[in-house]
Records
---
Amino acid sequence: MASKLPLHVPKRSAFESLWGRVPPSFLAPILATPFRPFAISAPVSATIRAVKRKSPHPQDAYKLRQAQARKEANLSRQAVLQEQRKKELGDPVRGIPTPFVQSFDTVAPQQLATDIENINLEALKVDPNKPPPSATDVSGENHLNFGINSDELGRALDFSRELTEPMSNETLDGTTPEKQEKERREWERRHENAAAAVQRIASLASGSSQQRTKKNIERIIETFGRHNTDSTLKPKAIAPVTREPDVPAPESTPRVGPDTGSSEVQIGILTAKIRVLADRYEGPNRNDKINKRNLRLLLHRRQKLLAYMEKKERGSERWQHMIKILGLTPACWKGQIAVE
């Protein structure tokens, strides 16, 4: 029986021609997919055409001017409110200048600025009958260099004055009252020059920044240390704790030596260091990147301590005393601090 021949012989595709044989079965689904050139999907293209077809509607010129005026009024009001909030928060770096903080530059207590119109010129005149003041009285510095104070320096100058004072002896030959008076005036002049020289040597105004910072830290410890403030400033009231009658209350550890680790002392020390770095950064060393980074680190460290102390001591006399003396503002512990 003769075999039946197919009526139509399929033509070999281009893929079969390249492959040389029938493609494998795993390529059948891919080859069966109809070819469609890459194009934008219908929803996206329809949206684009709709936007292109949309024509702007004409608006009234009066309404446009009103909208522009409202926008400018809102922007100006926002600028005023932002400036007002900035003033209320204060400067996050320096805060409010106080006499105690300003004295960090010279380590000498300063008084508030006096109005020029209220100055009594008669009180500033020198009394000719009054003896000249000593070097310690002229400077008025309570903290001197090399670990000495004004009292010690004053006692040393008085002792040197007693040792070098010339003795009045009228029995010596050739000694007259005029000659003795001349020698005494010369001795007074030499003693005043020597006292002024000693005062300049011991003054922190001629010392280094490191020496002034060291003395400022000692002042801060004496001002904010709890070994001195516990007897005058009351801490924040603590909520009562109920205990069993048989269990005694825990005893507080006695303090040994001056307080150097409390939050207010550390905040004061950081404030003194921040003032030194801020003065250098705002001066000729504006491009000092290392100084800027150190200033930012000290500001953030003080911000953390202030936030902690606000949570623990806010409303107490310790908190109010520290804020008043150091002139700190809410910007020092609230929000983000940026050094520009």
Note: Residues 99 and 112 are 6 Å apart (CA to CA).
---
Amino acid sequence: MKSTFFSVAAFAAVAAAAPAKNSLLAIRQAAPAITDADILNYALTLEHLENRFYLQVLDKFSEGDFESAGFEAPFYANLQTVSKDEGAHVSFLTAGLKAAGAIPVEECTYDFGLTDVKMAIATASILEGVGVSAYLGAAADIMSKNYLTAAGSILTVESRHSAYIRNALDVSPFPSPFDVPLSYNEVYTLAAPFIKSCPSTNPPLPVKAFPTLAASPENPMTITAGTTITLLTPDYTVKAADGQSPIYAAFITVTGPVFADATPVDGGFSVTVPTAPEGGAPVAGQSYVVLTGCNTTVTDETVAAGPAIIEVSPQES
């Protein structure tokens, strides 16, 4: 089993000094300045993935398969519309990049592990939620107002896809008044397991995947603030360089991360889902949690693993 060590002191001082070198940070250097072309190709990479996912789902499963799984009409027809939307996003971003004189990335090869309809729609819900968070997280970096408007027009559609599919899965279609922005590397970490290979001619993107963090399948079916869950670190461990400093779980929200103590257990960490501070965005809906040695901020330099995706039921008022 591999071990991941990091310096908590270096993480706390990341804004003031370069972090100490270690095995974790060596694979995750600060990203260079990102351009609008990079951002559009980053978006196109995700749209290719979503587009191919829906095409494979609709090719593998018939309308009858969906009805047998409990997704009655007009769900299948609406899923075909969602698929067409993703194809339109691919065409739109590809044309925009070409018009700007940039080389658009081409489709990769993927493995979605499609075994049954319910699993496929659960995956669709996750992908749509990640798509919303990806566009939201990238918005602040887009320099061109035209590109920003175009990205915003895709984001709102992805959000409607997410709400519709969540509702079909009998979970709240709008569990929080705020969506969650994710960084490029956080999004790529979630997308990377589906990507098996990409054309060598694709322009490189300034993104890298963090070590995988996963929610334990033994976690309670219903998770709310105050629920204790287990986060798994497959094939590696996370601990401070001094072996004593604490590890934290940071739940990402638009108003800032909400931290909780992470207690080492066999295969990962035990964490109690925190309640957001008054005035902050709640930890609710499709939520994202990373492991870190810093309990004041979350950056690409302080993330040790993750994100893991946790579905957190909104608290009743």
Note: The longest helix spans residues 36-60.
